[in-house]
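Worked problem 6 (solution included).
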Amino acid sequence: MSKLAPYLLFDDCCAEAMQSYAEALGGTSTVLLVRDSPMASSMPTNVQHKVVNAQVDCGDFVLSASDWLHPVRQPMQGNMVYVNLRGTEEQVRDWFDKLGQGADETTVEGPKKMPFGLYCSFTDRFGVCWMLIGE
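Solution. The predicted structure is:
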């Protein structure tokens, strides 16, 4: 069976973000740094501390991520991609409280009843856009 697993790119805060997500979502986090990976010898010293691969496994879904490692392109924050997470109304309220800590206040739409269920959205302190739906 196929699973959709969002992949997030961070600008040097991947390990912190993924640990925060693991705590908020009740999952387990694994983090591999460049310096501990097979590609360490082929990467410059200024990126050895960065995350080459991280995952948060929550059972029903997996978030994958890394720090930005492209040698030429630059990362750009955007608002065209959201991590859409669905659960019970109780889960949504809990996720909102935990994931929304430090969120960009201009982006926060707190939990409200909609025709399709409880809804909220925000851009978290790491620049990731979240849309939570309680069914």
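Discussion: The chain has a mean pLDDT of 90.
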